Amino acid sequence: MKDSSLAINNNNNNIKTTNSSSGNNNKLCVTVVGSSAVGKTALTVQYLTNRFIGDYYSGTDMTYPHSFSYMGGSLKTNVDILDISRPSSDVSIREEDEMISSLVDNCPEKCIAFLVVYSLTNSKSFKRAREILSKLPFNSPKYLVANQLDLQHRRQVSRLEGQTVADQFGCPFDEFSAVESLYEGQQCGVKIVFHKLIRQLISNSHVLPYPRMIRFSAFSKMIGAIVSKTRHHSNNKLQQQQQQQQNNKRKSSMSSCSNSSGNNSSGSVDSIATLTPEMSLLHIDNAHLMYGVKSKAIPIIRREMSMSNYPSSQIASI
Ligand SMILES: Nc1nc2c(ncn2[C@@H]2O[C@H](COP(=O)(O)OP(=O)(O)OP(=O)(O)O)[C@@H](O)[C@H]2O)c(=O)[nH]1
Question: What's this protein's family per the entry (predicted)?
Answer without folding.
Answer: Belongs to the small GTPase superfamily. Ras family.
